[in-house]
Specification:
By secondary structure, this protein is α/β, with parallel strands linked by helices. Helix content is about 30%, strand content about 25%. It has 13 helices and 19 strands.
C-alpha cells in the first residue's frame, strides 16, 4: 500500500494524527528535500525524489511494503500528487491519500476570513487567467511560483487599469519567519517576496450579469456612431460569445459592442484609431468595469498583428480594408466566427462575397427596428436605419 501524504504548508504541525502514524510505520519515505526536512520519522530509508517517473522507478527497485510519498499542503489542492495517482492507477497499484492542511485553509485562518466564496487558482508554472477570475466578483486566492510571483501578478493588474485593488501576500506559511503583507497593487508591484508565498486579491466592482442589449443611454457616446441596443443584442447572439472566447471588435467606435462582448467572453480587443472614439472606449471600459477589455489604438489590418488568436470577431467598420482584415483573422484561426455589420447595400454585397471567398459560408440577416415616439397623446413608430449582419464561420 502506497500512502500519499499532505504535510500541510511546510512545518510538521500541519500533519494529521493519521498521517503521523503512517510516517512512523513507513519503511521508505519519499518526497522533495523540503518535505523530508520538515518531517522526522524512524524510517529505514528516505529518498529525495518527487517526479512520478522517478518515484515509480524507486518503488520498482526498492520494493518497500509501507512507502509514504510526501507532498506540501493537501494532495487534492493543486498538487503533484495527481500525476502520481494517474500512474499508479495505470499500473494497478494500491494507494491511499491522507490530506493535510492546505495553504488556503491556513491563510484564511491567519486572516480570520472564511474562504468558502474565494476563487481558488494556481499561477505555479501555468497561466492563472487572473482577470477572468476577478470578473466573478469574488476574492481570488492564488498559489504562485517560478516567474509568476506577487509582483508579476500586481503588474498584470496594474496594466489592466486596476492599481488600487487590495492584495494580501502570505509568505513562508507555518514557518517561524511567516509574514503577511497587505497593500494595493501599486504598493506591491515592485516588492520582493519569499519564493514560498500565496496571494489573495480582493475583487474590483464588476458588471451585473444580464442578457446582451444594454440600453443605449447607458453608454458614454459623444458624437461617435454607435450600434443600437437591438442590433448589439443580435450581434452577440449571432456571434454566440462564450465565457472562454477571445474576441476582436474591429472599428470599435464607442466600444458598445466591445463592452457587451467583454461581459460575455474571456477577453476582448477593441481596435480603433479615431482619438475621440478611443477616449470613449476608455471611459466606457471604466464605467462598466470590464477590465478584460483592451483598447488597441491603430488602423486595421496593421493593428491586428499585435492581437492574440480570436475565437469571435465583429467588424463594425473596415474602411475599405475588409479583405485584409478577414485574411488576418482567418489566418490566425480558420475555425473562428465572424459578424460584419453594414448599412449600405454595397458593403453588404462586398461582405457576402469576401466571406464566401474565405470559405466562411455567410448568412445575411437584415434588421429593421422601429421605436415609439409620443405625439399629441398618442405614439408614433419611427423607423431606424436598416442594418445588415453578415455572419459566417464556426457556429
Amino acid at each position: 500500500m502506497i500512502t500519499l501524504i499532505g504535510i500541510g504548508p511546510g512545518a510538521p504541525g500541519g500533519l494529521t494524527a493519521e498521517a503521523r502514524e503512517a510516517i512512523n510505520q513507513a519503511d521508505l519515505l519519499i518526497g522533495a528535500a523540503r518535505m523530508l526536512d520538515a518531517v522526522s520519522a524512524p524510517v529505514a530509508r528516505t529518498a529525495a525524489v518527487y517526479r512520478p517517473e522517478d518515484i515509480l522507478s524507486l518503488l520498482d527497485e526498492a520494493r518497500p511494503k509501507t512507502p509514504c510519498v510526501l507532498y506540501s499542503g493537501d494532495p487534492g489542492f493543486w498538487s503533484g500528487a495527481q500525476a502520481l495517482i494517474r500512474r499508479l492507477e495505470e499500473r494497478g497499484l494500491a494507494y491511499r491519500v491522507l490530506p493535510g492542511l492546505s495553504s488556503v485553509q491556513t491563510f484564511a485562518a491567519r486572516l480570520g476570513r472564511p474562504w468558502k466564496d474565494w476563487v481558488l487558482a494556481s499561477a505555479h508554472g501555468q497561466s492563472a487567467d487572473l482577470l477572468s477570475h476577478l470578473r466573478e466578483g469574488r476574492p481570488v486566492f492564488l498559489l504562485t511560483g517560478g516567474d509568476t510571483g506577487p509582483a508579476a501578478l500586481c503588474k498584470t493588474l496594474a496594466d489592466a487599469g486596476l492599481p488600487r485593488l487590495t492584495v494580501t501576500v502570505g509568505e513562508n506559511l507555518s514557518y517561524p519567519d511567516e509574514t503577511t503583507t497587505v497593500g494595493t497593487v501599486s504598493d506591491l508591484a515592485d516588492r520582493t517576496f519569499s519564493p514560498l508565498n500565496v496571494v489573495l486579491v480582493d475583487p474590483p466592482p464588476v458588471p451585473a450579469r444580464r442578457a446582451p442589449g444594454l440600453p443605449d443611454e447607458a453608454f458614454i457616446r459623444g458624437q461617435v456612431p454607435m450600434s443600437k441596443q437591438e442590433v448589439r443584442a443580435v450581434i452577440l447572439a449571432k456571434l454566440a460569445v462564450m465565457p472562454s472566447d477571445v474576441c476582436w471588435d474591429v472599428g470599435a467606435g464607442t466600444g458598445s459592442v466591445s463592452v457587451e462582448m467583454a461581459m460575455q467572453g474571456k477577453e476582448v480587443w477593441a481596435v480603433e484609431y479615431d482619438p475621440e472614439a478611443c477616449a470613449l472606449i476608455r471611459q466606457n471600459r471604466e464605467k462598466f468595469h470590464v477590465w478584460n477589455l483592451t483598447l488597441e489604438e491603430g488602423r486595421a489590418p496593421e493593428a491586428l498583428a499585435r492581437l492574440p488568436k480570436p475565437d469571435k470577431v465583429f467588424i463594425g467598420g473596415s474602411e475599405g480594408a475588409l479583405r485584409p482584415i478577414l485574411q488576418k483573422a482567418v489566418g490566425q484561426n480558420p475555425n473562428l466566427r465572424i459578424c460584419v455589420s453594414a448599412i449600405t447595400l454595397e458593403t453588404a454585397h462586398e461582405s457576402l462575397e469576401e466571406m464566401s471567398a474565405f470559405g466562411l459560408e455567410p448568412e445575411v440577416t437584415q434588421l429593421s427596428v422601429s421605436r415609439t415616439r409620443p405625439a399629441g397623446g398618442k405614439h408614433l413608430l419611427l423607423a431606424q436605419n436598416p442594418i445588415f449582419l453578415i455572419t459566417g464561420g464556426r457556429p
